[in-house]
Amino acid sequence: MGRAAGTVLAILGVIGPAAPAFAHTSERAFVLLLPTGYYMTAGAIAVAATFLLLAFIPKGISDRLADARLTLLALRPPSPVATSLLAFVFLVVLVFAGFFGTRDPLENPLPLAIWTLWWIVFTILTAIVGNLWVYLNPWSGPLHLVRRLFGGRGAGRTAGHPFALPPRLGYALAIVQFLAFAWFEKVNIAPADPERLATAVSLYWFVNFLAALLFGDEAWFGRAEPFSVFFRFIARLSPLVWEPAEGEPADEGRMRLSLAMPGAALLGREPLPLSGVVFLLLTLTLESFDGLSETFWWLGINGINPLEFPGRSAVVWINTYGLLLSWVVLVSVYMTATALGWLLAGRPGSLVALFGTLVFSIMPIALGFHFSHYLTAVLIDLQYALAAASDPFDAGMNLLGYDESMVTTSFLNTHDGVRVIWNAQTAGIVVGHVLGILLAHELACRAIADYRAAVISQAPLALVMVAYTLFGLWLLASPVTGG
User: Fold this and answer.
1) How far is CA 381 from CA 8, 147, 187, 341, in A?
2) Residue 270 lies in a domain
3) Model's pTM, two decimal places?
4) What is the C-alpha to C-alpha distance for residues 266 and 269, in angstroms, rounded to an integer?
5) Interval 340-359: pLDDT, tens
6) Any residues with CB less than 8 A from the CB of 452 and at least 6 apart, and which?
7) Which of 39, 165, 255, 299 could cross-link with 306 by S-S, CB 3.0 to 4.6 Å?
8) Are residues 33 and 168 in the same domain?
9) Same-domain status, 32 and 52
């Protein structure tokens, strides 16, 4: 009973005021005292000031900023078949290394490729340059070949398929699969074990390959395969926007690449169904709980001495409950804040539609958490990835002239080095929330005709974002186990 109560209190801490903290601990357990209270206060003020500034500027100014475009070029997008086939071959090599290479996750290329290069770095790269997953997913190319060989109609996403994915499912299958991924990444006792990871990756690839054959690429990758959905939304944060070229008939099929405000591609979208809202909030839950579950505070309230951390096997059930409860709390807080804003604004339009519109504003917040939480790990693990690429099968090779002995963490041993990292992490959290406030403002103004009502409707959600800024900065400042 005491442990369950502690878990509930920990989750409620996500939305409550963060306690003062003065220690920053990296995932490698390097500790350096920094005046984090000043950073937390300044970050929260910056987010609140953004909301107040937007509330008082004329509507047309923010609209013009959001709609501004600087055209860079226009072209006809290439087929993703060839690049997808290359990605598939690369994945096969990695899986082979997972099964037959070294069992050390810092020397085997599969864990480093999946957890560092793909999940961490590729997500950030997608937010910068756009949806590369369309070209680098490992299914499009193999699906094309299989349909050509056996069905004669393998030429694209609209190729024939025997079953239709029921529209009423919405994003439910994406939720189930992403929740399984979140559990594996955060709760499983050895997610970086090469053989275990190779088995999971192979199973995941096969299930989604078979499902795409049965239900069609467009439906499956549009609503059911979670990373196609996730990367599509993350890509809309990019300042590089792809839009259909307009003008001459020769422009048919051509796309225009423009420079725009980050997140501009999220504006003007149809509201997501409730399943889509829940899916996006699940992605933020993973980024948030990933940090919370490693803190001394989380372990302490669950009766575990963080200085004698027994390992992930001791917290499987605690973290399972914590992950699920965090998700429920985050969904409840978001919907309560949005509903309260809707009531204060005089009930304009559909509340369900407002849920599905304003949820886009959490995407930059999720990205900010992602960047800040993983920054230190990336700086170290990218070096291990380079060393693993030099000898992918542990055969004594040194293809790239870089081995594990050259990996350094010296940048964590100095005050200046840690301060630079802390400043970058703080900026990631704060900028993510500021952009979230800006997007929420624009989304509300486009969903609600009356400008005053639109501004009022954002106030409760803005307060949640300020609190979440404090929570995010508190996470960065809290000592962690690195587990």
Assistant:
1) 33, 39, 20, 43
2) no
3) 0.89
4) 6
5) 999 999 999 999 999 999 99
6) none
7) 299
8) no
9) yes
Q: Specify whether 62 is located in the same domain as 74.
A: no
Q: What's the domain range around 428?
A: 1-68+276-306+316-483
Question: Which residue from 330, 331, 353, 327 is spatially nearest to 342, judged by alpha carbons?
Answer: 353
User: Are 81 and 24 within one domain?
Assistant: no
User: Of 101, 134, 94, nearest to 117 (Cα)?
Assistant: 94
Residue 218, judged by CB atoms within 10 A of its CB (0-12, 13-18, 19+), counts as middle
- Whether 141 and 128 map to the same domain: the answer is yes
Give tens-digit pLDDT for 89-122: 999 999 999 999 999 998 899 999 999 999 999 9
| DSSP code at position 480 | B
387 is a domain residue: yes
CA 216 – CA 32 distance, rounded (Å): 52
Amino acid present at 49: A
476 in Cβ contact with 25 (< 8 Å): no
User: Which neighbouring-strand residues pair with 255?
Assistant: 75, 244
User: What sign has the CA pseudo-torsion 74, 75, 80, 84?
Assistant: negative
How many Cα atoms occupy the beta-carbon half-sphere of 440 within 13 Å? Answer: 34
Q: Residue 409 above 50 pLDDT?
A: yes
Give me the number of domains the chain comprises: 2
pLDDT in tens, 299-325: 999 999 888 888 888 999 999 999 999
* Residue 392 counted as domain residue: yes
